[in-house]
Amino acid sequence: MSQENIKNNLNRYKTKYYWNQLIRGILFLSFTIGSILLIFSLLEDIFWFSSTTRLVLFVVFLLAVIGSFILWIGIPLLGLLHLRQGITDEQAAIEIGQHFPEIGDKLLNYLQLTHLSQSESTLIAAALSQKTSELKLFYFPKAIDFQVNKKYALITLALLTILVLASFVNPALFTESSLRIVRFNESFSKPAPFQFELLSDLEAFYNDDYQVKVQISGESKPSEVYYNESGRKHLMKRQNDGTYTFSLPAVQQDINFQLEGAGFYSKPYQLRVYKRPEIRNMTLQLDYPAYTGLADESIANTGSVIVPEGTTIKWSITTSDTDEIVFATEDTAKAFQQDNADFTYQQTAKSSFAYKLNMKNAHGSNKSPIQYEVSVVKDEAPSIETTFLPDTITYKSLAITGNITDDYGFRDLGIIYEIGAATTGYIPVSIKSQQQSQQFYFQWDLDTLELDAQTPLVIYARVRDNDAVNGFKSVYSEKYVMQSPSDEEINELIDNKTEASENQMEKSLEMSETLNEQLKELDERLKNKKEMGWQEEKLLEDIIKNKEKLEKEIEELNQKHKELLNSQKEFGKQSEKIQKKSEELQQLINEVLDEETKKLYDELQQLLKEKSKANEVMDQLSKINHKEKNLEKELERALELFKRLKLETQLEQTAKELEKLGDKQEKLGEQLQNQNEDPKADQQQGDQEDQQRGEEKPSTTEQQQEDIKEKFEELEKQLQKAEQLNQELKNPEPLEDFNEEQQDINEKLDEIPQDLKQDQNKAGQKMKNAGQKMKSMAKKMQQMQMSMEMEMMSENIDHLRDILDNLIKLSFEQEQIIQEIKGVRQIDPRFIELSQDQLQLEANAEVIEDSLLSLASRVAQISNFVTREVSEINRNLDATMVELRERNKGKAASHQQFAMTSMNNLALLLDDVLQQMQMAMAEAMGQPKKNGQQQNSLPSMSEMQQQLSEQIQQLKKSGKSGRELSEELARMAAEQAELRRQLEEMQQQLAGQPGMEGEDGQEGGTGNKLKEAIEKMEENEVDLVNKRLTQQLIERQQDIITRMLEAEESLREQKQSPEREGETATQKERRLPPAIDEYLKAKREEIELLKTIPLDLNPFYKKEVNDYFRRLSGQEQ
Which regions span the lipid bilayer (predicted)? Predict the structure, then answer.
């Protein structure tokens, strides 16, 4: 029991020991915390450490507190709670023995004895008993004195007193300094003598610009203020109102910043960046009304559309950062239906409206208004634009072209016409009903309407759209009135076209003369020059440009003369004879331009580009000079022929009208005489005649007579005009004087009005006499014209025969000179004599040329090819003289040979022309044509061809040469040309008859056989002229005879076959006038262009594109 008491007494000591340690630890911990807090706060208050230093202080403070707490509080507390082994009994015994000297080591010995082995228990027990009795007198806890801690408590209390006093003296010492240490991760600025007042809101939107705006207040203010972000400083801009600003462009994330001025910082700020509501994708689904025929479609990324009325529109929008979308118009606001980030809205468009999309989220709305417009297109009436293109040459056809447009298509298009007040007709025009915009054209042959000059034709077009609801809206075009021209209008029309053609000829001739002058000037400048200067190059460029202009003028001349010819044909204002001459003149005009000249100019232009030498350009100019001089002559010739033809036409037309007027005057006299004998019968007869003629009956005879007198005066003026035209000719015709006849007729016409008042029988007789004199004068004019023509034809034939003889002689002379020069050396005096002979031959050629050109100005049958051959002769003769002067025999002989070949070719051509002129004269003199014997003439021609073939074979075997051979070959070439001409004439007469073409277009027809024979004849003519007696020539002769015999057999079979007698009627195709045909061709091309409009265009844009092309078409017209 005693031992147990000692144990308990020892434990009570330990408990008091731990309490003493705990009290002391609390005092130590309080002192430590207070002293560190005081020291660190003082340091921070003085130095305003950085975040890093404050972090170190805070860590040191925490470590000190935690270490002190563990050491002075934790360990004693664990020992007190017996959670940790504290001091041992032996350590306690030692401390107790030290406190109680009386105990000393007794307690320690006692504890040691209690651990000894039990084998010694008797002795130990005695010792323990003794120790127990000694120790029980002591109370161990008294060894612990709490009063010892009083000094520590006083020290701690003193420290606490200091802390309290410091907090009163400087309240911010612990509240702010210690707070800055604890909040070491934040930036704190040392209190400045001024204040930063941030005026900007600390919220911004993504990608928006943000402006930091601050105002400084206080007694002293810094001179500069900086924006500080992550240690980077930017000077802020001072504004007039004393504030400072700094702009941050397109902020995209949160930003921490401070403001700095004079070394002082503001508190830290944080700018929060939010995102606005945004459209990621928008689609409009358009559901068009069924009647429009439009396919439904979707339009992406646009909110403005143009749609037909009644279209249902569905908006589908995909967004980001969006909580709500409101569809707002001027009158309403409706929310979209939302499905997460997708929003939809649907509405039927009945009229045009503008709308906004208002988007919102928790932080704001869309920055700028999202505005769109829906334009609704009403179903409007169609539109039509028409152009009427009458044939101003024949007035027998009309082309109608134009544009029609509508929203969605058409029902029909038609042409409505009115003839007078009674007749109305409708002609449908084919169109594409579903094509919203299209062009149309309609060609109308007016012959079926049987129009006359008194009845107008009114034409207009009507188009209807496919709007069945509104009754197919109709629109009419403007009306066009067309009326056949009167005789006076026809005469005026032909006169205008005649004048236009003549003016164009004169203009072309003038330009040709100017071009030749420029060529001559350039040739003079290039002489004795090696290189071309810039002036020569400029002149050459002008020549090429002028040539191009001349070609265009000649093409225009060709077109104008064709129009004149067509008008004359259509209105029948010329006789067949003059019509034939007009066609021959047209053929001459067609052949004025040739490809060879164009090629020469192309080569000249290439020389200019290559900066060629002067001599090369001169060589080319030499070739062109002959061509251009020939062109000038051809134009001059065409103009002279045109004037002569104009004279003949004027005389013929005047005679015709005079004869017609005389007949009218004579009938009026008979009517007047009959009227006195039987007024009623005569009245009825006159009415019937007027009705048959379709003329309005004059109210009185005086008026009719006055009209006749005016018409005769007009014819007198026409006769004077003919005399003026004759004087304009280079070689005027010997026109007869009709002054006596005119004076006699005028006297009768002047007496008639007075006789009508006194004696109508006498007036009627004078009318008949005046009419007879008019007819007599007309007949005299016709006889004069015929006599002039026959005399001119006779003179022309004689003249051409002389030219042909001289040309053949010239060819023989050229051949003789060629042969003689071959045997003469250049140093031989005979060479000079032969050169002089060549020069004389050239002069003779010029005489022939002048005579031929003079004849060509009167004879249209002489083709341009003849004049060009003359030009070739002159060119080669000129070149021959140049080479002879240089004593270059080889080149001179070559040019001589070419000149002789051209002479022979020209002789063949002129012989052909001579034959034509003789036949024309025979026909004019009334000699019968041999049309009835055409088929019988083929055998005779085959026999003549056989004879010619035999003559050629004999000539080849004869061995003839020189002049004798040349004469034989020339005669044979002429015979071959005559046979060919007769065969060509037969081919033309047989054209179109049954059997002329082979079956199914094969080459077995008679016409093809004749054509082959003619082609081989032409080849033989060339060989004979060029003195080529070859085996091929003889073989071709046999082929020609074979083809002619085959054609003869075919004709014989056709004559015997009854199946050949019938002919199938064919419809003659009516050709449009060239102007209308070209216009319609251009319109067709424009239609094809319009068809290329993409089919997936919005209807509105289709309409705009069509309008654009229509306006463009209008500008071209």
Answer: 21-43, 55-81, 152-174
- 27 and 168 share a domain? yes
Q: Which of 305-309, 389-393, 408-412, 757-761 is the least confident region?
A: 389-393
**Which of the listed residues 144, 172, 200 is the one where a domain comes to its end?**
172
Average pLDDT over the chain reads 79
Q: What is the pLDDT of residues 311-326, one digit of tens each?
A: 899 999 999 889 899 9
Residue 1045 forms part of a structural domain: yes
**Statement to judge: residues 33 and 157 lie in one domain:** yes
DSSP label at residue 128: H
> Of 505, 459, 456, whose CA–CA distance to 479 is shortest?
459
Give yes or no for a contact between 1031 and 911, defined as CB atoms under 8 angstroms apart: no
Would you report the helix, strand and coil content of the chain in percent, each value rounded to 5?
Answer: 60, 15, 25
pLDDT digits (tens, 9 = 90+) for 825-884: 888 888 888 888 888 988 888 888 888 888 877 777 776 677 778 888 888 888 888 888
| 161 vs 1000, residue with greater confidence | 161
Residue 44: inside a domain: yes
Per-residue pLDDT tens digits for 261-287:
887 888 889 999 998 898 989 999 999
720 belongs to a structural domain: no
Q: Are 165 and 239 in a shared domain?
A: no
Segment 51-56 shows an average pLDDT of 82
**Residue 143 and residue 45 in one domain:** yes
User: Which residue has tokens 């003179």?
Assistant: 795
In which domain, by residue range, is 126 found?
2-172
Q: Say how many domains are in the chain.
A: 5
| Secondary structure class of 458 (helix, strand, coil) | strand
Asked whether the whole model's pTM tops 0.90, one would answer no
389/475 same-domain check: yes
Token duo for residue 511: 């330009």
Task: Quote the tokens at residue 200.
Answer: 């900007």
Residue 358 placed within a domain: yes
Tell whether 104 and 31 lie within a shared domain. yes
| Domain stops at, among 228, 259, 274 | 274
| Spatial distance between the Cα atoms of 768 and 641, rounded to a whole number of angstroms | 39
Q: Are residues 257 and 304 in the same domain?
A: no
Residues 25, 158, single domain; the answer is yes
> CB under 8 Å to 523, separation ≥6 — which residues?
618, 621, 622, 625
Q: What are the pLDDT digits (tens) for 577-636?
A: 777 878 878 888 887 787 888 888 888 888 888 777 777 888 888 888 878 888 888 888
- Name residue, tokens 């702009």: 247
407 Cβ partners below 8 Å, 6+ apart? 292, 308, 377, 379, 380, 436, 465, 1099, 1103
DSSP-derived pairing of the beta strands 297-300 and 269-274 = unpaired
